[in-house]
Each structure stands twice: as structure tokens, then as C-alpha cells.
């Protein structure tokens, strides 16, 4: 689960008179201690926690409502939905009434309201954003390296594997899994757990022309990502492109000359 930071203090969007504590007839009214993120991001399949801290509620009740269908999900510590993925986290004697969503799905994205049943009712909105689990390979989709140098490809996955291991991410060269024990040697993999997910780094030393081709990072719990590697035989990509254009120009000129010779020959015969 990844949460986006939010400002501390009273944030617009808390309705019904909520916000800082106020005194009414010598008594403190309930309010939201608005120090938690108002935007929460979670990856499909993982858990999300929408935080709500309600102060001075007395004998009143804190509830969570899903805004899109006005469905009451929880009230006090009880759940009022058949979807067992939703639950309320309220460790006694805290003021926290957090909504937990397990195994987040794309349909869970949207606005949720934490409510206190005062008169009038006060509420605080929290937005849940749901992201697809996916891999990303750093840099350009076309990687150019010189023959004999090292191919270095880094793949980031926005979900964690537990525990992080090489088995959590596979690398393919073309249609074949990269073999780290091949007679070729010089191929290694570094996998680590980061704050945002998992990072896998593929290193291929002493690159040969045969190491050119498509490389794909395939996580066991996210969409894959690919890049195309070009191993150059002492040639810069720009030079290679210039060479290709020159060859194409030469071939076109040869074809034009052949066609002209044929036409002149035909006219002479007549």
C-alpha cells in the first residue's frame, strides 16, 4: 500500500462544521483531527487503510460510507456489508476509526466518508486511488551498448514480494528465460525491496552481438515490461543509422541504373 502525503491542519472538504475543536455551551463538540492523508493510493491485490481520527465523540457513533452508492460500510466497530474485505480498525482506547480494505480491486476506487452522527452530521472525505500492478524498466525502450561493455537493465515493480528474491521477477531474452548458470557466464541479478515495491537489476558483462534482442522483466504479481537491446560492433547508433541510410541510397541508385539500362536497351532494339 502506498499513501500520498497530505497537509496537516483543517482541510476544505470536511463538512457539517467539523474541523478544529470548538466550545458550544461550555462543552467540546466532536471534530476530526485532520492529520491523516486525504488521498490514499493502493495497488490492486494489496491492502489500503483510510484513516479517520475523531475527537470528543462521547456517546456518538463513527461510521464509514462509500460515496458512489451511499452504502454504509461500518458503524462503530461493526461491518454492514456482505463484502468481507471491509473492516474497521479501532484499537481501544484510541480516537482512530480507520477503514481497512483488503485485496483492493479497481472498483474500490472513489470517495469514502468518515461520519459522526452529530446534529447536524459532520463528515470527512478520503479518496482511494487504485493502481494496476505493473513493471517499468528504467530509461529508453531502445538500449544501445558497445560490444564488450556491460548491459545494465533495472526493472521497478510497484508491489512488494515477500520476501524479495530472484524468483519474484524473471528476466527473458527473447522467448527464453535468462540463464544465470549458462556456460557464457557474466550474468547476474540483484533484487531488493524498496519503499515503493521491488527492484530487479540485470547485469550482462562483456556484451556480445548475440546478446542483442528483446529483454522482458516478468514479475510474478504484475504486468511485464520490455526493452530492446542493441549491441554495437564499435559503431555509434547515429553512425549505424547513417550507414543504413547510405546503404539504402546505394541500393536505390543501383536499381535506378539497372532500370534505365533496360529501357535504353529496349529503345535501341526497336
From TrEMBL:
Highest rank taxon of the organism: Eukaryota
Location of the Ig-like domain: 30-117, 120-228
SMART domains: IG (SM00409), IGc2 (SM00408)
UniProt GO BP: synapse organization
InterPro entries: Ig-like_dom, Ig-like_dom_sf, Ig-like_fold, Ig_sub, Ig_sub2, Ig_V-set, Immunoglobulin_dom, Zig-8
GO terms under cellular component: neuron projection membrane
Record protein name field: Immunoglobulin superfamily DCC subclass member 4
Source species: Papilio machaon (Old World swallowtail butterfly)
Amino acid at each position: 500500500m502506498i499513501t500520498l502525503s497530505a497537509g496537516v491542519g483543517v482541510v476544505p472538504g470536511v463538512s457539517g462544521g467539523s474541523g478544529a475543536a470548538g466550545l458550544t455551551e461550555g462543552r467540546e463538540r466532536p471534530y476530526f483531527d485532520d492529520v491523516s492523508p486525504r488521498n490514499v493510493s493502493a495497488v490492486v491485490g494489496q491492502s489500503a487503510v483510510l484513516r479517520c481520527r475523531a475527537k470528543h465523540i462521547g456517546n456518538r457513533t463513527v461510521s464509514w460510507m462509500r460515496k458512489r452508492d451511499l452504502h454504509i460500510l461500518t458503524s462503530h466497530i461493526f461491518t454492514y456489508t456482505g463484502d468481507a474485505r471491509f473492516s474497521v480498525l479501532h484499537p481501544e482506547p484510541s480516537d482512530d476509526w480507520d477503514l481497512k480494505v483488503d485485496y483492493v480491486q479497481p472498483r474500490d476506487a472513489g470517495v469514502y466518508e468518515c461520519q459522526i452522527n452529530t446534529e447536524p452530521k459532520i463528515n470527512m472525505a478520503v479518496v482511494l486511488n487504485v493502481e494496476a500492478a505493473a513493471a517499468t524498466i528504467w530509461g529508453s525502450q531502445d538500449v544501445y551498448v558497445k560490444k564488450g561493455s556491460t548491459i545494465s537493465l533495472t526493472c521497478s515493480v510497484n508491489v512488494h514480494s515477500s520476501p524479495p528474491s530472484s524468483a519474484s521477477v524473471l528476466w527473458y531474452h527473447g522467448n527464453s528465460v535468462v540463464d544465470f548458470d549458462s556456460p557464457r557466464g557474466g550474468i547476474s541479478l540483484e533484487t531488493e525491496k524498496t519503499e515503493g515495491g521491488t527492484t530487479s537489476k540485470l547485469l550482462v558483462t562483456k556484451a556480445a552481438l548475440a546478446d542483442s534482442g528483446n529483454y522482458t522483466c516478468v514479475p510474478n504479481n504484475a504486468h511485464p515490461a520490455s526493452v530492446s537491446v542493441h549491441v554495437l560492433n564499435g559503431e555509434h547508433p547515429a553512425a549505424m543509422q547513417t550507414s543504413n541510410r547510405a546503404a539504402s541510397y546505394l541500393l536505390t541508385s543501383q536499381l535506378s541504373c539497372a532500370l534505365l539500362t533496360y529501357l535504353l536497351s529496349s529503345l535501341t532494339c526497336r
